Amino acid sequence: MMGTLEKVKYYICSIVGISAATVTGAMIVLAFSQLIARWVFNSSISGADLMLRQMVLIIGLLGGVLAAATNRHIRIDLVDNFIKGKWKARIRGFVNLTAAGVAGYLGWTSISFVQSERQAEVVLRGLLFGNNVAQWYIEILIPICFLLMAFLFMTSVFLTSTPRDNTGYNT
Predict the structure, then answer these.
(1) Which of 36, 53, 59, 98 is the most buried (most CB within 10 A)?
(2) Are 128 and 47 a contacting pair, CB within 8 Å?
(3) pLDDT of residue 83
């Protein structure tokens, strides 16, 4: 039976995974369409290159959330190889707590960054097929993703079971 934290973590993984797959699919379609437009029609889709750059940022953030949720993020396992037993679990807890603190700090500071971008009214010109879009609409994902990562690292401190990915297989 799943606990409340595990359910929340599962739903976060599901939503973020679907979002990442959707954005990746849109990137592939847009890049292919841009390629065809350049080769066949000797033209380009207005704002496609800028949109693809923004999508890469989004994929990176969503991938970071998924990596934190499934405990597959980059970490240095030097200490893990030499320490056994309860000390290993304590050190992992400390590392996850530290990662949660860093991600939380980045999330908190990125909120003020997005607020300043909103106040400055920075606009991405020609992003959606020639239409202008406020840059903070895309940047709002930065604090959301970092705060989700902080939450997921914090849940890793409290959940002592074997980490699982969203497919249900042990990692």
Answers:
(1) 59
(2) yes
(3) 79
This prediction's pTM: 0.81
Q: Are 135 and 167 in contact (CB under 8 A)?
A: no
The whole-chain average pLDDT of the chain stands at 84
> 16-47: buried (b, 16+ CB within 10 Å) or exposed (e) per residue?
bbebbeebeeebeebbeebeeeeeeeeeebeb
**Contact in structure between 65 and 12 (CB atoms under 8 Å):** yes
Q: Are 91 and 161 in contact (CB under 8 A)?
A: no
Burial of residue 140, with CB atoms counted within 10 A of its CB: 0-12 exposed, 13-18 middle, 19 or more buried: middle
As to burial, measured by CB atoms within 10 angstroms (0-12 exposed, 13-18 middle, 19+ buried), residue 100 is buried
Q: How far apart are CA 133 and CA 57, in angstroms?
A: 16
- The average pLDDT across 93-114 equals 93
